[in-house]
Amino acid sequence: MLHVLIGGDDFSIRQALEEIKKGIGDPTALMTNTTVLDGRQVTVEQMRSVCETVPFLSEKRLVIVEGLFERFDSGNKTGRKKSSRQPEPSEAYKAIADGIKQLPEFTELVLIGGGIKAGNPLLRQLSAMTEVKSFPLLKPSQLSQWIMQRVKAVGGSISPQAATLLARFVGNDLWIMANEVDKLALFTGGRRIEEEDVRAVVSYAQEASVFAMIDAVLEFRVGVAQELLQQLLKQGTAPAQLLVMLSRQVRIIFQIKEMRGRKKSRMDIQNKLGLTSDFVLRKAWEQADRYSPARLREVYHRLLETDLSIKTGKLEGELALNILIAELGQRGTIGKV
Question: DSSP characters for 38-92?
Fold first, then answer.
């Protein structure tokens, strides 16, 4: 039987794969009858050979192929050198589809792909042969619902406000989200998860506070910035670590602003900066709209000067940060937003 699992939500794809495994039979027997192939490199002959191998002491064989669809997406490079004996992609996908049509009854073949384009020729061929299960990244409204279901599944409950806040902090990476939900369930010990629990436990809450402090600094709101600084220090954030976080976020905002000026797409910018958190990207994107390059450069250079004063022992960390915020708040005539 053929299974096709595609989409950007890798967490849900892996869950679907686990369900397929459960439906096959004895997990111990399955361990010795499972083969995982790299679809970017595998040949038609290799796939056929593995799929036609009779299972050992079991009724079923499981073959998992990842990255096969990506070979046939236009403009995608696999890194595999062409050979005169290898068919061109236009011939290869047809040969693969023909081979799958002759799949033995004892073989469960699972093809896994990421963000596959709708016009992918192999996907079009296989869509006529089986149901294609797509797992796109969840939208914000769907994410809150997913959180509530996940919390219920681990034996807990969560308020709608806390679910919304958690979705805003973490974004749609369900691997991270599942981990944060598990932590919250343990932290609350059976009672309902509230917004204050999310702020206390979820690691992304700290990034949210850092962004809020950056906002206050850039907008010359000294009192608010210093209050947020004290909150972060009370949470156990070391001054040196906080300075690194501040410098990183200001640098990201500046880079986003610069790349947007060169007409780079949101996806290109995210990949270039290596941002895996939707929350970090979204907040930096919003802040890039509001602040001038001159103001961002001013703050970044003062952060570097503060870092130097701490490392050389000229100033103690907490004092240096308080002075930094106070000085930046007095420069309202420089680099106005």
Answer: ETTT--HHHHHHHHTSPPSSSS-EEEEEESTGGGGSTT----PPP-TTSPPHHHH
- Hey, what CATH class is 2-134 in? alpha beta
Q: Are 36 and 66 in contact (CB under 8 A)?
A: yes
In this structure, the number of other CB atoms found within 10 A of the CB of residue 15 comes to 14
Nearest by Cα to 101 from 133, 129, 63, 67: 129
**Maximum pairwise Cα distance, the chain:** 79
Q: Is the torsion defined by CA of 269, 275, 278, 284 positive or negative?
A: negative
Name the more confident of 181 and 333.
181
Q: Which CATH class is domain 204-329?
A: mainly alpha
Report how far Cα 296 is from the mean position of its chain's Cα atoms: 27
* Integer CA distances (angstroms), 128 to 2, 101, 121, 124, 136, in order: 11, 11, 12, 7, 21
pLDDT digits 0-9 by tens, 190-241: 899 999 999 888 866 667 777 788 878 877 888 888 888 887 887 777 888 8
CA distances, 331 to each of 45, 47, 324 (Å): 69, 66, 11
Token duo for residue 76 = 């995608």
Top-level class of domain 140-201: mainly alpha
Q: What is the DSSP letter of 139?
A: P
Identify which of 265, 292, 300 has the alpha carbon closest to the alpha carbon of residue 281. Answer: 265
272-325 pLDDT, tens digit each: 888 876 767 887 888 888 888 888 888 889 999 999 999 898 999 899 999 988
And the tokens for 27?
């997990």
Give per-residue pLDDT as tens, 235-274. 777 888 888 888 888 889 899 999 998 988 888 898 888 8
Of 83, 82, 67, the C-alpha closest to 120 is 67
Q: Any bridge partners for residue 35, and if so which?
A: 63
Domain boundaries, the chain: 2-134, 140-201, 204-329
Pseudo-torsion of CA 117, 104, 64, 67, nearest 10°?
-30
How far is the C-alpha of 91 from the C-alpha of 103, rounded, in Å? Answer: 19
